[in-house]
């Protein structure tokens, strides 16, 4: 019995969501306004371009095409300076436990991330070789909540979408998994991710017996 387990990266495997937030906040401050943590929830799972468009809308700021590209590059440089410091210590609690268990049970393991920095981050934390298939922001044309990223990941695993399980921390990502007719597991608060099939605060709440049931389903 082989199922496909597809993991989002930012906020699921590693807590890079905090670095994205810091970098966007700095950019907003530079433009004369601020971003709240609540607003940041809406940026999770959202592509780099779309995120900047949304942020500029919040601040009522209009930029020329050239300025837009400049700020987007600046945000990524800032973000990458945080990434440069990362190591295996930044893998979120009990994520290795679940990954090891899935490997032991010979399950399909893939990454489905909107980030163009995903491969770099996986390398930094030493998880690159755990994933049989990696689909990131460089591989998709339609961003979450479109299901494309997860459908390509399923294809890479050679497993039908209905036999896939997605771990996601973003509203848009859970919607994408649901649209792909995959089982969605929200990592975060029930309040934000109530549309997921299951919600856990983090991986420490996920027992291997639960994973075993998903495999048998
Ligand atoms: C993930 C994060 C988003 C980020 C997006 C693009 O989905 O949750 O906050 O904007 O990836 O990331 P990138 O590394 O390509 O800027
Ligand atoms: Mg995420």
UniProtKB/TrEMBL annotation:
Which GO biological-process labels does this protein carry?
carbohydrate metabolic process
Keyword Metal-binding in record: yes
Establish whether keyword Glycosyltransferase is in the entry. Answer: no
Q: Give the species.
A: Kordia periserrulae
Q: Which UniProt keywords apply?
A: Magnesium, Metal-binding
Family matches, as InterPro entries: B-phosphoglucomutase_hydrolase, Beta-PGM, HAD-like_sf, HAD-SF_hydro_IA, HAD_sf, PGP-like_dom2
**Binding-site residues, substrate:** 8-10, 24, 43-48, 51, 75, 113-117, 144
Protein family: Belongs to the HAD-like hydrolase superfamily. CbbY/CbbZ/Gph/YieH family.
* NCBIfam families membership: bPGM, HAD-SF-IA-v3, PGMB-YQAB-SF
Q: Which residues bind Mg(2+)?
A: 8, 10, 168-169
Catalytic residues at 8 (nucleophile), 10 (proton donor/acceptor)
Cofactor needs: Mg(2+)
Give the positions of the site Important for catalytic activity and assists the phosphoryl transfer reaction to Asp8 by balancing charge and orienting the reacting groups.
113, 144
Lineage top rank: taxon:
Bacteria
Record-given protein name: Beta-phosphoglucomutase
The cofactor binding remark recorded in the entry reads: Binds 2 magnesium ions per subunit.
Q: Which GO terms describe its molecular function?
A: beta-phosphoglucomutase activity; magnesium ion binding
PANTHER family per UniProt: 2-DEOXYGLUCOSE-6-PHOSPHATE PHOSPHATASE 2, PSEUDOURIDINE-5'-PHOSPHATASE
Pfam families, per database record: Hydrolase
